[in-house]
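This part of the workshop introduces the protein records we will be handling. The question running through the whole workshop is how a given chain folds. To make this concrete, we reproduce a full record directly below:
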Amino acid sequence: MLRAGLIPICSLAQHRAREIGYLIRHTGARAHLVEAAFRDYDLPGFAAGLAAEHESIAAVVVFGDPAKAREGQHSYEELLASVDPGDAAEQTRSWPSDPESVGVFQLSGGTTGDPKVIPRLHCEYAYNARAWAQSWGWGPGTVVLHATPMMHNAGIVVSVQSAHLTGATVVLVPRIDVTLFAEAIAAERVTDTMMGIGLMTRIVEHPDADRFDFSSLRRVFFAPSVASAGDQAERLFGCTVVPLFGAGEGIFLTAPDDAPEQARKSTCGAPLSPLDEIRVLVPGTEDEVSVGEIGELAARGPYTIHGYFRAPDRNRDAFTSDGFYRTGDLTRAHVIEGVVYYSHEGRITDNISRGGEKIHADELEALLVRHPAIAEVSVVGMPDRLLGERVCAFVRPSGDHTPTVAELGEFLLAEGLAKFKLPERVEIVDDLPRTKVGKVSKRDLRTLIAETLEKEAVDG
């Protein structure tokens, strides 16, 4: 697609009518590409319904079984067979002429219900990928295994583009499965990989963990969301565990191989590029906090975006007056052996990170409050050792009926919401805790559900 000058919009196969419909309307998408078989869901049928509702969709392309394509849809295999290889080579011989044109539309894990669309430019991605590959000395002898969704910024930059630009090899597995992951590392002699806390925990607890061959690994890139996880991962894999923080909007923090152990184990690292600029701001202002104090991470640099696509109102809030992107993440600066590193201290905005996928609490709340049995609702993340967080809905009922998890899930699916966003626990309350200014206290709700889960674990 990049060679042909087409712009991919990086959505998930799990997204449904609410998410995909918004993206089509916001970008004016011309084609919808789907898998023939995705779990038990009929994606070609889903795409046919969306195409009928949105005039901009001129083509639906189905990958996999050609028999699954609906009338009027195109099978990718049939399209390939219809193209003369010589003509295709000539048409895609050079990259688009403008390096500052949009290469990829990414989706933001930001703060609002409708995802912000991130226009990533060719020059940004090229710089980001080369800087990443050069920082680790990647080349033809490097073998990279990517076991998380490829559509995310990390999948494109850290794995595909960095490998392709330096002659390294990319290894893919069809799903996040411990045995497939371990077998791929051993068979392909993988040198570098990235994972989250959930996959690492599954590997640690796997009955065959001691028999897995991880001897080829040099590095495991890992989001340091749990303090003890780095030590545990190094014992398991027998290699260096490298902290990594990244945003779809651009900025990467990481710690090089020669970084002090304290930096690798207790921070997310330092900026990837010497041209990256970091500020730690008092939230809601452009004033910087002192070193060691918690504030909002703001960044500017050669691969960090300058604005969201068709979103002037959001851009006014998301960027400082001199172009620093406000990440919405809380951070603290640490000076370790003369170098400034940054630790992740939570988020300002009310997002839930379920297995790395961002779920917007306000999106769920806006839909759930339409349910006739709900007078008031507040959604928060509850701790989970495999996924990091799951969705918990605190509900004040409007009458005698108390809605269940299954009932609310069915209601939200009918609203066209993706299944992975559904609440997995409902807590019924007489009232919601408030701050001094009368707002619902999400902090108190997160503390309450964490304490409840701890008590349940003790009581068995």
Observations:
- The chain has three domains: 17-91, 102-273+303-316+338-347, 351-459.
- The longest strand covers residues 325-336.
- The chain has a mean pLDDT of 91.
